[in-house]
Amino acid sequence: MAARQALRKRRERVRRWAWGIPMWLLALVFLLPFAWMISTSLKPDVEAFRIPMQWVPDEPRWENYTEVLFGESSILIPFGNSVFVAALRVLGELTTATLAGYAFAKLRFPGRGKVFIAYLATSLIPAQLLLVPRFVYFEKLGLYDTLWALILPGMFTVLGTFLMRQYFVSQPDEFAEAARLDGANELQIFFRIYLPNALSMISALAILTFVWSWNDYETPLVFLSTPENYTLPMGLTSFTDENGAMAAGLSMAASVISIVPILLVFLIFQRRFVRAMTESALK
Q: What pTM did the predictor assign?
């Protein structure tokens, strides 16, 4: 028995190494662009595209970060705008998606299935096709060139409602039936029973919504025209040299700063995100 257990452990160790080494190599390949970005952010522009590339600069140019944060084209205002937009979009998305998902999953009303299918069918319309109607609509409402033109559409997404609906469907109906026998209404059932159990999926949806909002470039490009209202993706395009070409060092320094919030959000919620993805896969 001892020999069999030792042989089994040895095989498991070999199997782990056989899978682990290719995964580590693949991870390193994916990390190379980030390493290049960090290296370039510490170089003057003339050394950014030198061949062969020097990964570690002889004299790191920390002034690039100082210029990006406090220089003429500072990203602090676009950074603050992106934080404001992302925060409100996440709050709005979580509110509408959880309520709508619960309604489609647990409430009984005529035509519930047909309404849900019709709602899902709207996702087949390309987002680019709606840019012109939304532009005209927001202009008439006086919301053009304001951050609300980015916030309001981001508060309602089909994917968020679909994810929350699928999660609530997987939860037992017996919880609600027992609560109703005790005199609880639908809001009490939602907030006290189902919502606390959905924190993992809510965290996953919050991460996805934050990343979508933080990286959104197309929508600000269409709906914003004043530099003071630019979000961070738009602000990253403002770093140019005296010839009008991209200033590689400054652009990469700004890009490094821009990914820090995404990393922090993911590190904070990663356990719940992984748990939500695992639970959804198992169900």
A: 0.83
- d(CA 72, CA 65) in angstroms, rounded, equals 12
Domains identified in the chain and CATH numbers: 2-63 (no CATH), 71-282 (1.10.3720.10)
Question: Does the CA dihedral 122-123-126-129 come out positive or negative?
Answer: positive
> CB of 275 within 8 A of CB of 200?
yes
Whether 230 contacts 157, CB under 8 Å: no
Which alpha helices (DSSP H) does 42-75 contain, by range? 63-70
pLDDT in tens, 119-174: 888 888 888 888 888 889 899 988 899 999 999 988 888 989 998 998 898 888 88
**Token pair for 103:** 């309604």
- Maximum CA pair distance of the chain? 79
| Closest-CA residue to 277 (of 213, 170, 182, 204) | 204
Among candidate residues 72, 77, 73, 76, the one with its CA nearest the CA of residue 238: 73
